[in-house]
Design a protein that fits this description.
heterodimer; A: 390 residues; alpha/beta; Rossmann fold; seven-stranded mixed sheet; five-stranded parallel sheet; elongated; B: 296 residues; mainly alpha; ABC transporter involved in vitamin B12 uptake, BtuC; two-stranded antiparallel sheet; two-stranded antiparallel ribbon; 4 strands; 73% helix; globular
Chain lengths: 390, 296
Amino acid sequence: MKKWKKFATAALAAMVCASVMAGCGGKKEEAKSNEIKIGASFELTGNVANYGKAILSGAKMAFDEANAKGGVLGKKIVVIESDNKSEPSESGNSITKLVTQDKVVAIVGPATSGCVAAGSPITEANKIPHIAPSGTAPGLTVDNNGKVKPFMFRACFIDPFQGQVMAHFASNTLKVKNVAILMDSSSDYSKGLAQVFQATLEKAGGKIVTKEAFLSKDLDFKASLTKIKATNPEAVYVPGYYEEVSKIIKQAREIGLNVPMMGCDGWESPKLAEIAGKDALNNCYYVSAFSAQDTDPSVQAFIKAYKEKYQKDPDIFAMQGYNAGLVVVDSIKRAGSTDGTAIAKAMAATKDLPVASGKLTYDANHNPIISALIISLDGGVPSLKEKISL
Amino acid sequence: MDNFLQQFCQQLINGISLGSIYALIALGYTMIYGIIKLINFAHGDIYMIGAYFGFFATTQLGVGFIPAIIIAMAGAAIVGIIIERIAYRPMRNAPRIAILITAIGVSFFLEYGMILLVSPQPRTFPAVFSPTVYHMGPLVANSQQLVILISALILMVTLSYIVNSTKAGKAMRAVSFDADAARLMGINIDKVISMTFALGSALAAAGGVLVGVYYNSIDPLMGMMPGLKAFVAAVLGGIGIIPGAMMGGIILGVVEAMVSGFLSSTFRDAAAFGILILILLYKPAGLLGKNVREKV
């Protein structure tokens, strides 16, 4: 038995050596081949499959466009899809397979921060550039010591950025000073936004008059709202998801709290108007990265191209996928090679790259500096209010 | 009116309307406990099932508010009878802990079964009547809050009448007092217990529909927290005692509103469950409960 174990270990070691060498050899082979393989690991089934599919459609569009223009470095981009079933554990497997078996040069995906975090150590260890189109958790691109991960990037703005944008909007456009916060104390997303919002607003001379909290799944917010109303705020900031926010706005209007309500991208859902009722959704503002009403030519060009290709309207996820695809194509071009380290270096140096939502530049922590949109709701109808770049 | 008093009155209104919902669910809890000494943890999920019956009645059949509540109550009553028949009756002579665990199992079965059937997405309850907002000086209340409170009162009075003044109610009290003796007197215990479940479930369903109308949205896990809170309400008023459940529900709702309004909303649930602990420590029979020695 022991002998067998020893043999197995030796065999395994040999295999590892062989695969490492094969890896070296593979690169030479790849130089000969006419394809550049990009791995796309997404939530194609499971509970957030809608996000994954939309992002993949956008990313594929970016790669198809590059191929139509003659490819990258004279080669054709081939997208290798892999499903992570919306589970972080499967995400690790899926990315491992793409990196070690398919030998992709870069990974795009997955959609949710949890699945990205599960795959990130694998791409870091294998020196494969990895771009998360919609993972907003601030910690994704940095390690536990706060040092930036050299191969990890994202294509969307991070949560704290939204809080900053809303605070700027509150003090510069709405010109309010005394703001109340009603946050979801069971969600890191909500608490993080509230914290950044407060810091930014106070720096701009504003004041948080009261800070109340609720738990996700709560139904009744009248007690907290009554308390908020008594402090006479000029506006209320409600970072949260549409399920609770819709009820909060409805109940706020019912008790006669009619000041502006401000929020985040968690508000974005047709359910918001359904549950809150159209009459309650006035004087409400939230942050988003995408609006079909954006008159920016690059956004309109993207919407038109997407409609032609897929016969449906793109959403924010499709746009983020498209942006991620553009970043990858551009980085490979500028790197002039398919070597992971070279691509990652080029990616980090991305500056003013024209993407669907404007121009994209990476900051030191591999978070893109892109503009955010303030969407206003009037009678439940969303419309683009303002474009903010910080 | 000075500011504090105004706040206090508004929070009282908020609390009573929230409390009436707890009371409606607590009524069913307390009845079932009174008859077969079972904490029916699936009761909050019956409330959810009732809300879905109401939802499908209004959206698919297009009926109004009152017929929707009646359909939901009837549907949930049948579900309650089936659950009792399949899950609890075979366990009737099993140790109490076994039947309690069965109840938790039934609760999970209903929650995740519904997720499978109707998807976990919240549904928007159609507005079956448009709310009128009443302003009384600086205070605000709306017609939905009144409807909830009045429905809860009507259902409680009806229930008290059934239990205290009808033959079926007499049978229920007899079974609750001593099941074996009741059987010897020729009372069909199985039938009485089925009826108790039907009544309790119907009340929960009414609560579910009212909540759906009031908050506009329902989802398969909506029964979890209200179920627990209603349990606290039932214990607070004295489990097994019908007016106690009503009182417990209202007190709990008001305490929650006051804690959110004058202390901090983060302490709200802690206060609710803190009450449960205090009651169990100092007055385990509940506010309206008499200290009777347990029959062995």
